[in-house]
Amino acid sequence: MTSNDLSRRTIIFVNIAHSFDHFILLIYPTAVIAIAVERGLDYAMLITLATGAFVAFGLCSLPVGWLAARYGSRNMLAVFFIGYGLSCIGVSTQTSLHGLAIWLLILGVFSAIYHPIGSDMIVTHAQHPGRSLGWNGAWGNIGAASAPGVTALIATTVGWQAAFVVPGLICIGIGILFMILVPYDGDGQNQEISKVGKRPPVARPIALLAIFGLAIVAGGLTFNMTTISLPKIVDERLGTELSLVLTGSLATIVFLLGALTQVTLGRLIENFSLPMVFLCVAIFQPIGLTVAATSTGPLMLMGLVMAMAAIYGQVVVNDAIVASYVPRELRAKAFSLRYFMGFTVGGFAIPIIAFLHSVGEFPLVLAAMACFGTLVFISSIAFALEANRDAMPSSVQAASE
C-alpha cells in the first residue's frame, strides 16, 4: 500500500468516525423525549442523567494525545469504534435510571477518544489541511444533524432502545473494517504549502493562549447547550404541536444548514486572515441566539440556523488555529488540551439547561447561550488585535516545519 493510499483511507475513516462521534452522543437528547413519555418522568430530571457523558467527553480527551503518542493514533481510533459501539448497546439494555446514567458515562468516555486524534490525523494526512478540516467538520456535524431525525424515527417505530442498538452495531462493523483497511499509522502526505508557508510568529504567546482559551471555554458551552437542547427548543417554541418525528426532522434541518458553513470556512481559512475569519464568524453567535431567544416560530428557527452556522464554523476555526500555531510534534497533545477545555466545561451545559429551563424555560436558556456567544465574539476581537500587533499571517499550515 502506498503512502497516498493509506492517507486517503485514513481520512475517509476519520471523517466517518467524526460523524459517528457526534451522532451517537446526541441520540439521548432526542430519545429522552420518548423516555419521558414512556416512563412518565420529567424532561429536566432525565436530561441530567447524561451529564456524566458530556463531562467525560471533555475530561477524558486530555490523556488521549499522550495515549496516541504511546500506542498510535490508528490503534486509538480502532478502540474508539469498537468501544463506542459496545457502549451504545450497553445503554440500550438499561431499565434503571442509575444504570442508564452509568452507561451514558461509559459512552462519554469512548466518545472522548475521537477529537484529539482525529483532528491531528486529518492535518497529518491531508494535502490541503484547511479544506480537509472544513469537510471533516461537516462530516461531524452531519452526524449531529442526522441524530435527532434518525433517533426520532427509530424511537417512534421500534423503540428508543433500538435507536442506540442500530448505530452501535454499525459503529462496531466500521471499526472492524477500519482495522483491516488501515493496518498502521503512516507518515502522512507530502503536503502542499498553504498561502503562508511559515508558522505565524507569536511575540506574546501567553496573551494569545489566554484569549484563545476564553473562546474555547465559552464556545464549548454554546456548542453543547445548543446541540443538546435544540430538539426540545423546536418542540416547545415553534408555536405548533408536532410529533416526535417532525420535531426531530426540523432539528436535523437546522443542524444541516448550520453544518454547510464548515465546508466554506475550510477554503476561507486557507486564503484569508485567520484572525479576521475568526472575528467574522463569531459575531453571528450572539446575534442568532438573541433572535432565537426573543422570538418563536419561523423567526426563531432562522435565529437557530444563524447561531448553528457560527457555532459549527467556530469549530473549524479553532482547529485551524491549533494546526497553524502548534508544531507537528506537539499537535496531538495540543488538540487534547483544546478539546479538554472546551468539552469539559461544555459538559456542564446539561445542569445549566435543566436549571435555567426550570426557572424561565427556553427563553432564559437561549439568553444564557447568547451571553456565552458574546464572550466568544469579544475573544475574537481581542485575538485579532493581538494577532495584528505581531503582524501574524493567517493560514492553516499545510505541513509542519
Written overview of the protein:
It is found in: Cell membrane. It is a multi-pass membrane protein. Its main location: membrane. The chain is mostly helical. The chain has a single domain, classed as MFS general substrate transporter like domains (Growth Hormone, Chain: A), CATH 1.20.1250. Helix content is 81%, strand content 0%. The protein is built from 17 helices and no strands. The longest helix has 41 residues. It is globular, with a radius of gyration of 20 Å.
Brief summary of the model shown:
This is MFS transporter. With 401 residues, the protein is mainly alpha-helical. The protein has helices at 3-25, 27-39, 43-47, 51-59, 64-71, 73-92, 97-111, 114-125, 129-157, 160-181, 205-237, 244-271, 274-282, 284-293, 297-325, 328-346, 349-389.
Task: Give the CATH topology.
Answer: Growth Hormone, Chain: A
- Give the end-to-end Cα distance, rounded to a whole number of Å: 26 Å
Q: Mind telling me the C-alpha Rg? A: 20 Å
The amount of helix comes to over 70%
Strand % is under 5%
Structural class: mainly alpha
Weakly predicted, low-confidence segments:
190-198, 391-401
Mean pLDDT: 83
Output the CATH class name: Mainly Alpha
Topology order in helix (H) and strand (E) letters? HHHHHHHHHHHHHHHHH
The count of domains is 1
CATH architecture: Up-down Bundle
The main β sheet shows up as: none
The helix count comes to 17
Supply the CATH superfamily name.
Answer: MFS general substrate transporter like domains
What overall form do the CA principal axes indicate?
Answer: globular
Give the beta-strand count: 0
